[in-house]
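Example record

Each entry pairs one chain with its bound ligand, pyridoxal-5'-phosphate.
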Amino acid sequence: MTAFPDPELGEPYLLTPGPLTTSAEVKQAMLRDWGSWDGDFRAMTAEVRRRLLEIAGDTAGAYDCVPLQGSGSYCVEAMLGSFVPRDGKVLVLANGAYGLRAAETMRYLGRAFTLIDKGDYLPPRGAEVAQALAADPAITHVLAIHCETSSGILNPIPEIAEATAQAGRKLLIDSMSAFGAVPLDVRDLQVEAFVSSANKCIEGVPGFGFVIARKETLAGAKGNSHSLALDLHAQWATMEKTGQWRYTPPTHVVAAFVKALEMHRAEGGAPARLARYTRNRDTMVAGMRALGFETLLADSWLSPIIVTFFCPADPAFAFPRFYELMKDRGFIIYPGKLTVVDSFRIGCIGRMDDTVMNRVVTAAQQSLADMGVASAVPPASALAERANLAA
Ligand SMILES: *Cc1c(COP(=O)(O)O)cnc(C)c1O
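Structure tokens for the complex follow.
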């Protein structure tokens, strides 16, 4: 693969799932200005929409793609505000920060919701979704997180989709950190709409997200939205009519994204990307485990997107220092987001391969040595917490 960024040139790898490390080609694509009304830019927007629907498997033309300015959360809010009727009710499935953010969004919208909160990392299961839907006929929609990036767990979307469809309700998915690598195909899943953004598995730069939704859902969403700028029906209707975004588009970001989509296709599409990210994860996890580190999750729940590790028990270990030592070696890592035990995270996505991941492991080993940490084994309390998960 060409054009991996070179940290020797002073740019560290971002082992953080969005923003992430992008290719030189993607960065270069931003070096020219575009008129938002111009035919060339409108063609780029059309290309983006068409390619994303292709990745989603929409061969029947039942779905459409609506890009929207802002970060991923803007798209989640737009999806909830545009597709959930004002008298609708959402079952929010949370097991981390992004599920809780969706619930908070519902609270801001002032629309009804029920929350199933599984804590830091337990997966919401199909059976409990079925039970919750049977117990409350007022629920119209289910909101699920595909990969919950705060722990790295890959949630069981197929069984959640099955339970939702069985109960005759509509499924909305936050596939922000999964789409473009982890399978999400509208031919295999009964899904009303899902969202992702430019700066995750497609490996673009941040600045917009996109919603892929059934055309009938988009058409029926008129007048639902609480917000002018986040009204997906209006954005869609304008794009359909004029080929333009309603308000100033992030032109350079879109140009970079067109290049990122080209490279995604050249690599072999979502299956090839999944294979590379999986190799990244497997290489990195095996190396970290050899140093004594332990993952929060059992292998069956580990996503190829980001992995949570327990901090070592050794009192010489301090995460802020570990972070700086890793950065000195060219790698930006992520603090953990668990509420109960100390942890940190390492991302597997972005423009890098397993040779880079081997260097990450070496950097971790050297950083531990610099700190005088003899063993990366986590405290017994962390392992007890993990035993809870298995139970
Ligand atoms: C990145 C991400 C988001 C969006 O976060 P922003 O900071 O608004 O881009 C939402 N959900 C998940 C699961 C994510 O990984």
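Residues 24-265 form a domain with the Aspartate Aminotransferase; domain 2 fold (CATH 3.40.640.10).
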